Amino acid sequence: MERLRPFDPSKIGGHRLAGRLGAGGMGVVYLARSPHGAWCALKVVRAEHADDPGFRARFRRETELAARLSGRWTVPVVAADAEARSPWLATAYVPGPSLAEAIARHGVWPEDQLRSLGAALAEALEDVHAAGLVHRDVKPSNVLLTADGPRLIDFGIARAVGATALTADGSVVGSPGYLSPEQARGRTVGPASDVFSLGCVLAHAATGRAVFGAGGAAGVLYRTVHEEPDLEGVPAALREIVRRCLAKDPGERPAVAELRSGFGGFEAAGWLPEGLPALIAAQATRVVDLPVPEPTVVGGEPAVPSPTRRRLLTTGAVLGVGATAAGAWWFRSRGAPVRPGTGDRPAYAVGLLGDRTDGAFTAQERGARLAVDEHNRDVRREFDLALRTAADGGTAEGSARAAAALAGARDLAVVVCAGTNATVPTAVQACTRARITALVVRADSSLLDSANLTTALLLRPTRSAGPPAILRHLNRVVRPVRTVVVHDLTDAAETVPSVRIVTVYGKLDGATAVEEVASDEGFAAVAGRVAEHPRDAVMFAGVRPERAAAFARALREAGHRGARVAEERVLGGRFLAEAEGWLVGTAYADADADPRTRAFAAAHRERHGHSPAPWAAEAYDAVRFAAHGLVNAGADGPSALRSELLRTPWQGITRRFSYDPGGQFYDADRDGGAFLYRISDGAARFVARADDIGAGG
Which of 102, 309, 383, 493 gives the lowest tally of CB atoms within 10 Å of its CB? Predict the structure, then answer.
């Protein structure tokens, strides 16, 4: 347990906080005393989760269901507030260690203790399912140990937050290594999914290792879906029932009632392996006689602000925004602009946000200015446009500040986010809080998967949708019997979604295999294994040009001759020099080479004296798309812009913009916006739009 930090509240919902039990992307967990003096674990959800429409209703529903849990092996919700600025819930505090900690410190569990553990957890799941819940995150760290038996924790909140993050592309909610194949694929899950997770937990307790291996999340998910579990070391008498729990088909798994019968009754006497009773007793004594903490945040009740929220609250001081401007940012109407345009026409400002030292931002600024000028030359126009740029310095903090500064202008209609994965997520959050429409042009982080549920719209697919041009080329042109995905774990968090969409979700028609390479490893060994099957296609899943170049060189030296593909971020000098013949998928067009963008390229050359660089045409489309929405919004202006963009599809020069009315997601398979390039003579040369690959057979 950690001490409270200066910005932590002293009280939440009448509960006095004593310390921090943990923190993560979802929020903070505190040790707290209830108004009645009982210890509890109080979980506070970060405010940005609550900004999603429908979150509070889901949160309220799930916590109400969790409060009904009454079984002896579950820890129900005892209090909650779905209407707080940062919603929170409290459960009874269990002072024992987790099963994960117990295994790490004292080793594997013998057969008799495994039976008692399995019997208790099966009974806990029976209680959960009877309450109308599916846990969705049964894992060793969510099983706490006490002298009289285990306790299954984390109900309600995981599912509510998970429903926020779950997207049309099938993003996974849960913990790789313990989630079911159907959960790994992003499909609907039921009680059988929890049974699969229970099987993983018992196998881990019996062997001390994860049943589908270690390594990167994408590799673990792939093995979960496609390979058999490693049950070596599971006691023979329990191996068959654990194997049945781990069946790929949910219909072949035993029901929890059958599991209870198979494990037998829970034996309280001696249910814990040797050494654990002392560990439990030691942890329990830590809570006794804890001193009352000194007050932290004055007032006691405010929920913990997220780092993004705190940055936004200080933005006014940093930028010198006074009270009047700040009030305009938070409370002004986004209707008709305040600055008149030419004659009787109103004027709207388009904000462009990015890093001025980044060549892609310069390209986008030039494309955006061409669109603004073209709009303003139209004598039939209903309003004028102006382009206003802001520099983010290439940092997340700078992006939040710059977005807030742009939003302070009352004539601003839209922000075009021209930055990178490192900066755009915070810009989107700032625009959401300012209630201004944000259009994301270049960034493709999976952190943006739920951006379309705020005030933002993605104008390209994220990594979670996979590389469309690459997939179409492999499926329609190469048609390999097998594709080997070489996953560079140097930047695993950025590449896992793409690997998952290719392998776990079966987006390739042929077979797939995953080879993982750690950040401190070279590529000679994996290149040698790949070259043993010279007709296999190879997809490099990594983002660093120097790592991609090293793999390309190793693959060439090993003599591999099959198709080789990668994603756009590997494009750099070293890779271009080593990767002759490789194909790379991007989300930006070659305006000179693509017939549908040549008129734009000609206008760009006339204006700037050279051909447009990557992302210029996409920014041009973004501004024109925004203007299209403002025309349809009419007198409602920017306040109705996003709803109009969602409602009315529009064809640009690079892609068609339309959104699913339910999930509001951009669909690259339907609307295009993906392009294929071939590396030839040290340069990336345009091949085709993804839509045109393999057309006509």
Answer: 493
Query: Dmax over Cα atoms in the chain, in whole Å?
Result: 88
Q: What are the tens digits of pLDDT across the range 364-379?
A: 999 999 999 999 999 9
Q: Which residue has the tokens 């090993």?
A: 558
Single residue among 67, 93, 119 that ends a domain in this structure: 93
What are 205-231's pLDDT values in tens digits? 999 999 998 776 777 888 898 889 999
Region class of 627: left (phi > 0), else alpha (psi between -120 and 50), else beta? alpha
For residues 377 and 393, state if they share a domain.
yes
CA dist 224 and 208 (Å) reads 18
Choice between 154 and 136, residue whose per-residue pLDDT is larger: 136
58 with 156, same domain? no
Q: Exposed/middle/buried for 615, CB within 10 Å: 0-12, 13-18, 19+?
A: buried
Does residue 130 belong to any structural domain of this protein? yes
* Distance (Å, whole) CA 259 – CA 190: 16
CATH number of domain containing 644: 3.40.50.2300
- Which amino acid is it at 644? E
The amino acid occupying position 291 is P
Taken in order 266, 268, 272, 274, is the CA torsion positive or negative? negative
Choose the final residue of a domain: 34, 60, 93.
Answer: 93
Query: What is the rounded average pLDDT for all residues in the chain?
Result: 84
Domain, as residue range, for 413: 307-461+594-666
Bridge partners of residue 456, in order along the sequence: 438
In a domain, 520, yes or no: yes
Statement to judge: residues 220 and 341 lie in one domain: no
3 state SS for 256-299: HHHHHHHHCCCCCCCCCCCCHHHHHHHHHHCCCCCCCCCCCECC
Which residue's entry shows tokens 């270049």?
442
In 147-254, beta strands by DSSP E: 149-152
Residue 50 has pLDDT above 70, yes or no: no
Asked if residue 683 and residue 654 are part of one domain, the reply reads no
Asked if residue 662 and residue 612 are part of one domain, the reply reads yes
Residue 377 CB burial class (10 angstroms; 0-12, 13-18, ≥19): exposed
> Does any domain span residue 637?
yes
């998952």: which residue's tokens?
A: 500
Helix (H, G, I), strand (E, B) or coil at 387: strand
11 is in an annotated binding site: no
Q: Which residues are catalytic?
A: 137
DSSP, collapsed to helix, strand or coil, labels residue 517 as: strand
Integer Cα distance of 223 and 231 in angstroms: 14
Number of domains into which the chain is organized: 4
Helix (H), strand (E) at residue 567: strand 564-567
Mean pLDDT, range 477-494, rounded to an integer? 91
**CATH number of the domain bearing residue 73:** 3.30.200.20
DSSP letter for each residue of 424-462: HHHHHHHHHHHT-EEEE-S---GGGTTGGGTTEEESS--
Q: How far apart are CA 166 and CA 624, in angstroms?
A: 30
